[in-house]
RNA sequence: GCCCAGAUGUUGGAAUUGGUAGACAAGCUGGCCUUAGAAGCCAGUGCCUUCGUGGCGUGAGGGUUCAAAUCCCUCUCUGGGCACCA
């Protein structure tokens, strides 16, 4: 009989887990769990292609964490679901000419099969499918709650329109002016849209960053995305008028170096201030700027363009007159849509001033000396104010305060904080999403659909291809659109936009523990017991999309009395990505790896172990199939060792190594350094089997427990073969290192002479410097280097190194 | 341009956070066992070398230190994010 035949063993344990409900919770189980631990991972979009090896990598790493927590004695709830709405599914459905409704179920069952095959401990009693009316009914409810909270607004706004997807896309979905889905150049359009007012939470989202245990790179991405800037709004009086131009600046200290003003092409004052001579030129410029699509406009390396509009402002500090220009390098959507240009200390202004021969003036000097020479580039660094009259000599920081203070007394300035974050546009002029639950009535205006009328069902459309009308295909189903106004009972028309997929995923984790009821979205008993999520693991690509939206919805629900907590995920870890031969894995490169064959060949345990062994989980690694033999033969040797193991007491030396291994594994697994966990287990097995010695059960049991998160099927099997008759995951078996046994008694340390390694000596913890030195001196190799020289200094770091400085 | 990661043998990677660089694997070479080997076992494997108890070596160059893959400065390259955000 084979000691280890993965296919049989894995089938055996998967069906046993199913029979015993090892990973399943009933509602009662959920309610009575003593040590609840919610282990969440990002749910997939169920594509037709199935899970690729990158998905398996991510889910295995998250499952390892969940199983580890389980071995620590927690009641680990680990659900899985499917994020099946959205443009991605819809475009695929259009391509193959099938309604997405008919496509999704088979994709989901294929995903489920794959996810079961890798042996992750998902609770298949608690799943979500965002396209199920029993789910999206509650997504619509989420919208209504945000509406009640005053966080939903319809307004006409310039939005990113993808001409290929024929829909609006969020700022977060525009990558360098291109649609993230199809890479078409995004255009600017003015359309009425539904917005969620996430900007009201900008500061809260920023403040919360201090208090959550997340991967630092994810937090830094959110930080940059929110983009807080501190500065001031300053009014520049317009010469010959009773009005002024308000600008936002983060550098009030450079105001004396402001030599002209710039308005964004869309700025309302342009029309008012342009004089007759300039009118034609300005109109032409503004027209041309409006025609530019967002991609062209955001292209940074484009030469600066613009024109003088024939007006002047007065510098409120120096009194100097400054011409007012219009240029598309100033953006209407940020700040006040107008700037004071300081070419001496801003790179963009410098470039503009150089192009149009506008004066460039130094007002900040690195060392305080007033070097009057020509500036050849903008100086943006720190320094001291010069050429600024009474303010000369102040540092940048002092100057910022002093200028604002002086202007505040005249009412010309106010301290101001601004954010780059924009409101979240959730309208999508597409078919495959939850209809936004709003009804328009000629008398009552837009009215929210009453909760009792949810869900607003998405009709089954034969023809769901979007057109260029700017309206959703739902608008073509007039039967569906026509309804009664919930307020007055008159004729109403349904909103035909559907919501962004990111609304589906902004709250899905809250639904998982509540799926036993269809009466309410959130079962408060379950919410209190299981939320917030204890650990969330997922891709870093969602740093500023999903993860920010989920925080926003949670905060809004907290403020609205629905949730008691304000942050959804206590701990978040971004996993690394897998490369193939050092290159990113992607469909376009044609190097996608579907894991099914690999698992069929090697078994799930070996594949899991191999993937986790590739590199640190948070950094990813390079997938090289030949490397799978290492983990495979490790499992073989372990199975062999168990088969041969005796009932004798373990060897003392081996048990010491065992406790050191427990120590290392326990600390590395906490840091998700799964690769070194596995290498520590391998090293220990090498010690156990050294010289072909027969090992004992006592020496092997803990290693099997520590391996269980990685290779759960084999661990169960070996546990059973060692004579245990309950599941290894049942009773919190994670071993505890005995500090006495883990302690190393004698160790070898290096001996250096003048920093160069010349030999080594064996010492104990209590070896003194003098003892170490005499040990070193009696070492032949070291002694040669001490001949006929004086010892000048001895550095002895117990347990680390002995360095003898001679000369 | 800015921000964040990173660069270590033939390859994936390790290094107690300043203390014996290359753990654990893969690959390769040789051997044992075997009808067989994706099984098991043993040995070797950074480079140079006059083979010495020698020299060199963690992207490049400089610095700090008794001691640097690790800290500091300058630069190069790779991956990712943001991008005219005033």
Account of the protein in words:
By secondary structure, the protein is α/β, with parallel strands linked by helices. The protein starts with 5 loop residues before the first helix and ends with a strand. It has a five-stranded parallel beta sheet with strand order 2-1-27-28-10. A four-stranded antiparallel beta sheet has the order 6-5-9-20. Helix 19 packs across helix 20, helix 22 packs antiparallel against helix 23 and helix 23 packs antiparallel against helix 24 (697-707). The longest helix has 19 residues, at 53-71. The radius of gyration is 33 Å and the shape is flat. It folds into five domains: 35-141 and 506-581, 3-Layer(aba) Sandwich (Rossmann fold); 150-198 and 428-501, no CATH class; 229-418, Isoleucyl-tRNA Synthetase, domain 2, CATH 3.90.740; 596-741, Isoleucyl-tRNA Synthetase, Domain 1 (Orthogonal Bundle); 744-806, Ubiquitin-like (UB roll). The protein binds one RNA strand of 86 nucleotides through helix 8, strand 12, strand 16, helix 12 and strand 31.
Quick overview of this protein structure:
The protein is α/β, with parallel strands linked by helices and 807 residues long. Helix content is 36%, strand content 20%.
Summary tags:
5-stranded parallel beta sheet, 4-stranded antiparallel beta sheet, 36% helix, RNA-binding
């Amino acid at each position: 009989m084979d000691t280890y035949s993965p296919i049989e063993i894995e089938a055996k344990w998967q069906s046993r887990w199913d029979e015993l409900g090892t990973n399943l919770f009933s509602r009662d189980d959920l309610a009575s769990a003593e040590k609840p631990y919610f282990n969440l991972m990002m749910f997939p979009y169920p594509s037709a292609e199935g899970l690729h090896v990158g998905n398996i990598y991510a889910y295995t790493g998250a499952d390892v964490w969940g199983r580890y927590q389980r071995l620590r004695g927690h009641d680990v709830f680990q659900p899985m679901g499917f994020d099946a709405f959205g443009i991605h599914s819809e475009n695929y459905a259009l391509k193959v000419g099938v309604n997405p409704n008919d496509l999704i179920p088979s994709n989901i069952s294929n995903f489920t099969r794959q996810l079961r095959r890798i042996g992750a401990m998902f609770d298949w009693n608690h799943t979500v499918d965002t396209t199920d009316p029993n789910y999206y009914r509650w997504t619509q409810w989420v919208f209504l709650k945000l509406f009640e909270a005053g966080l939903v607004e319809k307004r006409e706004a310039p939005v990113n329109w993808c001409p290929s997807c024929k829909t609006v896309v969020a700022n977060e979905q525009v990558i360098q002016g291109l649609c993230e889905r199809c890479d078409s150049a995004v255009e600017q359009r003015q359309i009425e849209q539904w917005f969620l007012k996430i900007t009201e939470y900008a500061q809260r989202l920023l403040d919360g960053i201090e208090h959550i245990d997340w991967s630092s790179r994810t937090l830094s991405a959110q930080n940059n995305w929110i983009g807080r800037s501190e500065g001031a709004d300053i009014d520049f009086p317009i010469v010959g008028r009773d009005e002024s131009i308000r600008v936002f600046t983060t550098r009030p200290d450079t105001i004396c170096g402001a030599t002209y003003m710039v308005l964004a092409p869309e700025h309302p004052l342009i029309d008012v201030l342009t004089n007759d001579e300039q009118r034609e030129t300005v109109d032409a410029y503004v027209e041309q700027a409006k025609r530019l699509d967002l991609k062209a406009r955001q292209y940074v390396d484009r030469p600066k363009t613009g024109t003088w509009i024939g007006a002047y402002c007065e510098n409120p500090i120096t009194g100097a007159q400054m011409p007012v220009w219009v240029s598309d390098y100033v953006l209407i959507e940020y700040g006040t849509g107008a700037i004071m240009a300081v070419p001496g200390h801003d790179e963009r202004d410098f470039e503009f001033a150089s192009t149009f021969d506008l004066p460039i003036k130094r007002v900040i000097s690195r060392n305080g000396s007033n070097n009057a020479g020509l500036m050849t580039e903008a100086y943006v660094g720190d320094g001291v104010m010069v050429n600024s009259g009474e303010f000369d000599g102040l540092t940048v920081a002092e100057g910022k305060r002093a200028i604002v203070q002086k202007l505040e007394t005249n009412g010309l300035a106010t301290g101001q904080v601004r954010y780059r974050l924009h409101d979240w546009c959730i309208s999508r002029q597409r078919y495959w999403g939850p209809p936004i639950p709003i009804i328009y009535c000629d008398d009552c205006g837009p009215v929210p659909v009453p909760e009792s009328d949810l869900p607003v069902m998405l009709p089954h459309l034969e023809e769901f291809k979007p057109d260029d009308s700017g309206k959703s295909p739902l608008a073509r189903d007039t039967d569906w659109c026509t309804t009664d106004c919930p307020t007055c009972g008159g004729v109403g028309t349904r909103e035909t936009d559907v919501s962004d997929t990111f609304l589906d995923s902004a709250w899905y984790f809250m639904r998982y523990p509540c799926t036993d009821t269809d009466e309410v979205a959130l079962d408060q008993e379950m919410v209190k017991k299981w939320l917030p999520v204890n650990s969330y693991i997922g891709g870093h690509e969602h740093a500023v999309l999903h993860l920010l939206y989920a925080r926003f919805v949670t905060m809004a629900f907290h403020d609205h009395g629905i949730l008691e907590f304000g942050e959804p995920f206590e701990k978040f870890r971004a996993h690394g990505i897998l490369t193939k031969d050092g290159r990113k894995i992607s469909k376009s490169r044609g190097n996608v790896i579907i894991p099914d064959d690999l698992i069929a060949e090697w078994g799930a345990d070996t594949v899991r172990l191999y993937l986790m062994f590739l590199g640190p989980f948070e950094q990813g690694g390079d997938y090289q199939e030949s490397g799978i033999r290492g983990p495979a033969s490790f499992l073989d040797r372990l199975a062999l060792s168990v088969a041969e193991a005796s009932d004798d007491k373990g060897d003392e030396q081996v048990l010491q190594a065992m406790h050191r291994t427990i120590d290392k594994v326990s600390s590395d697994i906490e840091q998700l350094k799964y690769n070194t966990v596995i290498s520590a287990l391998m090293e220990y097995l090498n010690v156990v089997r050294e010289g072909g010695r027969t090992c004992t059960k006592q020496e092997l049991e803990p290693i099997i427990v520590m391996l269980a998160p990685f290779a759960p099927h084999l661990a169960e099997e070996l546990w059973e073969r060692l004579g245990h008759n309950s599941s290894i995951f049942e009773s919190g078996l994670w071993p505890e290192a005995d500090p006495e046994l883990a302690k190393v008694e004698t160790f070898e340390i290096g001996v250096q002479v003048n920093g160069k390694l010349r030999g080594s000596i064996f010492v104990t913890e209590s070896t003194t410097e003098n003892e170490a030195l005499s040990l070193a001196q009696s070492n032949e190799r070291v002694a040669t280097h001490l001949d006929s020289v004086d010892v000048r200094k001895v550095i002895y770091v117990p347990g680390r190194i002995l360095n003898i400085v001679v000369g």
